[in-house]
Fold:
Amino acid sequence: MKLHAEVFFTKIENSEVIYFRDHLDLSYKSKDPDLYVIKVVENYAYKLKAEPGDLIIHSTSWRCDSVNLIVLTYIVYSDYLDFSTKKAKKIKVKDLRITTSEDVNKPKPIEISELHIVSHGLRHVSYLVKNDPLFKKRLKAGTIGAFKEIDAVLAGKITS
Structure:
């Protein structure tokens, strides 16, 4: 089975989430995936003009993307990321959405889009920021208000 990691680099600015995604193939790696992800994050932090101490790095989820592929998802948040050299995407904070399953016997939603993944990851970060001063202190004062807008639901809900 193949193992991949996706890393979403994110920041909130002017009521929008700005982000880009990197992808790692870890199928033939033999160490903890966190070690490889941290290396990539540190490299990007330098390129994106952020200090490692300004970053929130969090493993948010995993999913089976196909019969033969497991994807680990990491979110990296920093108010100091400079996306001017990257093709970043934007989502309005008010448009963040989680995905849901329509079948209580099948917890995995039928469709999981990039919007859903970013939304889910930011809800994790929101929870950490609200409940742990170590995470909160890595944010600029103005960003704390933006995180108050993000629903702290940590995973997709199952509807009946």
In short: Residues 152-156 have pLDDT under 50 and may be disordered. The chain has one domain: 2-149.
